[in-house]
Design a protein that fits this description.
It is a single chain. The chain is α/β, with parallel strands linked by helices and about 400 residues long. It starts with a helix and ends with a helix. Helix 9 packs parallel to helix 10.
């Protein structure tokens, strides 16, 4: 809980901090990486730094957390905190790193806002920071304790499957031949690789097999950049260099977009490589004999670019009340009788009362699906989602 005095100060200064938060985070990262270049080299996603996505996410999370505290003094935004904590745990974040962030973040705040940062203002925003930081530390501690693995573990690639021109599946077993800990359908692992320039970069990939598999299995889409976004460093490295017999470092599984034990009707909606957690969920549902209605929705450029399409359709076909609706922007004879033309339209997709919805894909896609689901009577609290990369949607929702 934010103290009454700090709440009043934060409420009064939130417009000024919010207006400058973009510049604050820009200077924060510059100061942080100048003092600790190893963090950019070996921990932070350099692609997200280059595109500005990580800066936006940090700015949004701080402003969103502070706004939530002053608007809801007896609560905290646990959904946002748990989402961030899962990502932090997959990266191996430790409590000792939070004072480092505090030091450089508040130096940036003082530099940008100048004389407006009085002793009272600094104390209030310090309280906000440590309320958020200590909450994350506590959640991360529980996640580490629950995990059957701490730190990194080596896994050997036992098979590589070319799913599409830009997507490859990697199947791995423990290099030490030890046991394979469990996980939940929808979770991801972090994969750490050493690049040509010596940097160790980390990325998260959703597991694509149902829990109980003797292997870790994930699909990687080769990320091609554009004028504002660089090529994906890790995805291109995996595609170009990793073959059967190679060894990768994997974290324990994390992630909070998971199938709950429920007999409720479900809707699993994905776009592009967002199909990966949905395939694991569908396989789990098929193995469990899920008998309630399941609507399986997917959007892609074309059938040829629809990664894991065969598994996607096959697992759905094993469910007694499943309906598939695959939408393709490039609709040709290959799609005839199998998919539908255009963007996702749920108008004639049966969404049963009490449906729990799971979404994964680009933000515009998920926003469009969410709006259509709410229009069909699905409760907002029953719509769950996963974002690959910094979660700009979540921090906006928490504000």
């Amino acid at each position: 809980m934010l103290s009454e005095q700090s709440a009043a100060t934060v409420r009064a200064t939130l417009p000024a901090v919010g207006a400058a938060i973009g510049e604050i985070t820009e200077r924060f990262y510059a100061k942080l990486f100048d003092a600790h270049p190893e963090l950019l080299r070996d921990l932070f996603n350099r692609g997200n730094q280059a595109s500005g996505a990580q800066k936006q996410a940090l700015a949004g999370s701080i402003a969103g957390f502070a706004t939530y505290l002053v608007n809801n003094p007896d609560q905290r935004p646990d959904v946002m905190l748990h989402r961030i904590a899962h990502k932090h745990a997959s990266l191996g974040i430790v409590p000792e790193q939070y004072p480092i962030v505090h030091e450089h973040l508040f130096a940036a705040i003082a530099e940008v806002l100048g004389d407006a940062v009085t002793e009272e203002v600094a104390a209030a925003w310090t309280e906000v920071y440590w309320l958020m930081a200590n909450a994350l530390i506590a959640i991360e501690k529980r996640l580490y304790a629950q995990s059957e693995q701490t730190g990194w573990r080596e896994w050997k690639v036992v098979e590589r499957v070319e799913e599409t021109a830009d997507v490859a599946t990697f199947k791995l077993r423990p290099a030490d031949d030890g046991p394979v800990p469990g996980y939940r359908a929808g979770q991801y692992v972090s994969v750490g690789v050493t690049l040509a320039d010596g940097a160790r970069q980390i990325r998260q990939y959703s597991l694509t097999a149902a829990p109980g598999s003797p292997e870790r299995q994930f699909a990687v889409k080769r990320v091609t950049g554009d004028a504002t976004t660089p090529d994906g460093e890790v995805s291109n490295h995996l595609h170009a260099h990793v073959r059967e017999g190679d060894v990768l470092q994997l974290s324990a599984p994390y992630g909070d977009l998971v199938l709950e034990d429920t007999d409720a009707p479900l809707l699993l909606a994905s776009a592009g490589i967002g199909v990966t957690p949905m395939v694991a969920m569908l396989e789990q549902l098929a193995l469990a004999g899920h008998s309630a209605p399941v609507a399986v929705v997917h959007a892609d450029r074309s059938p040829a670019s629809h990664a894991l399409r065969t598994d996607h359709a096959a697992y759905a076909a094993k469910l007694p009340q499943a309906e598939t609706a695959f939408f393709y922007e490039q609709y040709d004879e290959d799609a005839a009788g199998y998919g539908r033309p255009g963007l996702v339209d749920l108008a004639d997709v049966d969404v049963a009362p009490g449906t729990q919805a799971y979404l994964c894909g680009p933000l515009p896609f998920m926003r469009a699906v969410r709006e259509q689901l709410i229009a069909k009577g699905v409760a907002p609290a029953d719509i769950h989602y996963e974002v690959f990369g910094p979660d700009l949607w979540l921090v906006q929702a928490a504000a």
